[in-house]
Amino acid sequence: MADDSNDIADLFQDYADAMNDMDAEGIAALFAYPVTIWQLGRGYVFATPEELEENIETLLGVFEDAGVVYSEAAIGPTHVTAYAAFATASWRQQDEIGDVVHAFHCAYTLVKQDGDWLITTIVNDDAAEDL
């Protein structure tokens, strides 16, 4: 399971790297479809990468407008089985001088497909209303 934990940490690093590159396609590639994202008290289902990319592009635009230039995730508790995992992450987003613009927590459900961990569900614990 240690390898799985490392692979999951790598997944979240790839997620942060794609966010920092403002790469909606790169972010969407980290998901298994259909994807469910709970945010602002509602669940949204994305059947295809293209549907999710549209949502991600909008979100990245909000981050850019708020001055976010750097995002990082700290992985919290995880529970890993052979083909599913549950993880939490605390995200911090900073502006160009390093001030935290936004911080939030998410819970994730991951599935292992063809040896790779992919995100299938996200629950945002804190709404992004302050952006």
Features of the shown structure:
Nuclear Transport Factor 2, Chain: A; disordered C terminus; about 130 residues; single chain; 6-stranded mixed sheet; globular; alpha+beta
Explain this structure.
With 131 residues, the protein is an alpha+beta fold. It contains 3 helices and 6 strands, in the order ααββαββββ. The protein has a single domain (2-124), classed as Roll (Nuclear Transport Factor 2, Chain: A), CATH 3.10.450. Strands 2-1-6-5-4-3 form a 6-stranded mixed β-sheet. The radius of gyration is 14 Å and the shape is globular. The termini are far apart. Residues 127-131 have low confidence and may be disordered.
Number of helices: 3
What series of H and E elements makes up the topology?
HHEEHEEEE
CATH class: Alpha Beta
Mean pLDDT: 92
Unreliable spans: 127-131
Give the CA-CA distance, first to last residue.
37 Å
Structural class based on helices, strands and sheet pairing:
alpha+beta
CATH architecture: Roll
Helix content: 25-40%
* Tally of individual domains: 1
What share of the residues does DSSP label as strand, in percent?
over 45%
Looking across the biggest beta sheet, what order are the strands in?
2-1-6-5-4-3
Radius of gyration: 14 Å
3D shape: globular
CATH topology: Nuclear Transport Factor 2, Chain: A
Number of strands: 6
Largest sheet: 6 strands, mixed
